[in-house]
């Protein structure tokens, strides 16, 4: 029965989807790919026409040509119910909004060129809605959707920051008379107000237009129900849009000089654009969405469109115009856009699979979807930031790192701003140096936050060891920095260079004051983390026994790493101040490399204990501060009544506050296992082990294993010897 209804719409979680054989499905995929390739060609052709035709006239011709063709084939007035006055008003608003989106999209095309426009503006609604869901809702779809959103954002950033600015600036140069229209003048002024280049403003404009387009399509689906279908709505929308733009086109034709030498030569290009961009894609997507899943259409369509947008790769260099030249940013963003579209358009698993609970009297399978609906979903980005900030401020260590990070960032940006303002290379370089130091603080802050994440099925021990990794990485960074400073200092000792000390003193004093605040904030971490200071005076009884120093006295490698970073910066500021004074007063240029040598040596020596301790933890060494207590505890375990022996004792430090251990006990047959486990747990807990696993093995187990492994022969002999002991009433032992 289950196999019979395996293709039922309920079993797949796809309500209303018509199953299509694979052979016919391939036809629709090919049709979709062809339509996307033709649309890419149409966008490239549109860019060329927009160089001579005003954008408003261009959109008017597209809307009018599309309306004429659809009125002939679709017959929106003769088919369907009569449209009421209220619906005509909605159609007018719909058409105005459609014109605005078209204006923004095609204006972005003139700024960024067809290649960047196809990468930014031609995303499926499924992809954009999934992206916005991850960013602004609490049901974003899980970690995979979050990765897709991150890839999408990185792709936009690559296109914004790492594009070829020189070539794009040439492309975006305003042609003569381009500002004749008040609309284009307003748009250029708005982009200039942002303080970015025209092509970067075009990137922002296309992203905003993309979000508006998705909202417009959502409203269109609702209005199409009232009008009588999406095809009828599309035909009427193009007609009303052309009527809205007609007065504007008449005014432009009367007030501006046309650059078109012959309108008849543009009939064929306009016809190709109307067919490929306005008509073919609309109908092909409607058919493919009806026959296939919308996510699958989005995936195939995105790959076909983006690859056809990169068609200029195969052209000879002399045939590639300036606006179509590829850059590293475009290639990277294209790859990321394809990956993000594939991830964001993939159907979410949540709610698609239910539990089969039975069958109806008619034989329809019944599923329960409540289990999936009640599962925890990934948080939206704003809520994640809010919750993370709350966790950071709730705990002392992370709060101290966060406050010092804010102070450090404020001083960094002040340095950078003042350096750019005064054209001081020293201030700018020191600002970027402090910005690099902030990365160590961010690493420490993130580690302090992760240590409080709850354990999962995969990470069953939790994330406490992240602080060890953070301290280890910070220590390695400091050792590398100290090494390079030492090498450079030796070179400068042999040949001291001239140093401009004009801006060194104020910069060093400011950095020293900031770092002294960090020293005061993190000095407790260094003293508490040192092995010589178990910090038993705090009296934090985490485990309900008197030896709390064993559990709290472990090193916090993360805080020690942050402290050493701040200490290194403080020593650097002190060294710069001392060397500046010596150079100004006595002209000793060698003072700067000597101070650097001294500071590099101090940093290197101070980092070695941190690296050593972190390596011991990562290599699962028995905690040295617990080693003596553990040996005494194991002797006590061996003396417990009923315990024959123990084997495989393993004890290691998992994190600053967790010492874990495992042990195998061999016990007599007539003892109660739980009593033995409780006694052993209490003894090892007093020795500092607060996460213990005890495996109990009785004599019958030895006898069974003696035939399988020679490792149990000694234990078996000991057991037999214990059984041969005879006790008299007065306690005398007879062998």
Biggest sheet strand order reads 3-4-5
How much helix is in the residues? 55-70%
Kindly report the average pLDDT value. 75
Shape: flat
Strand content: 5-15%
Structural class: mainly alpha
Number of strands: 7
Distance between the termini: 73 Å
Q: What is the count of helical runs?
A: 26
Largest sheet composition: 3 strands, mixed
Rg from C-alpha positions? 36 Å
- Uncertain stretches of 5 or more adjacent residues: 1-18, 174-179, 312-320, 369-378, 528-555, 726-735
Task: Describe this structure as you would to a colleague.
The model is unreliable at 1-18, 174-179, 312-320, 369-378, 528-555 and 726-735 (pLDDT under 50). This protein is 67% helix and 6% strand. 34% of the residues are buried. The protein is flat, with a radius of gyration of 36 Å. It has 735 residues and is mainly alpha-helical. It is built from 26 helices and seven strands. The chain has helices at residues 9-12, 22-49, 55-74, 85-121, 125-136, 143-161, 165-171, 182-194, 198-227, 230-255, 267-291, 294-309, 328-344, 370-373, 381-394, 396-422, 425-450, 466-494, 504-529, 548-552, 557-586, 591-618, 624-638, 673-686, 699-706, 713-723, and strands spanning 355-359, 365-368, 643-655, 658-667, 691-697, 726-727, 733-734. Helix 17 (425-450) packs antiparallel against helix 18. The strands form three sheets. A three-stranded mixed beta sheet has the order 3-4-5, with helices on both faces. Strands 1-2 form a two-stranded antiparallel ribbon. Strand 4, helix 24 and strand 5 (691-697) form a beta-alpha-beta unit. This is Zinc transporter. Heterodimer with SLC30A6/ZNT6; form a functional zinc ion transmembrane transporter. It comes from Scophthalmus maximus (Turbot).
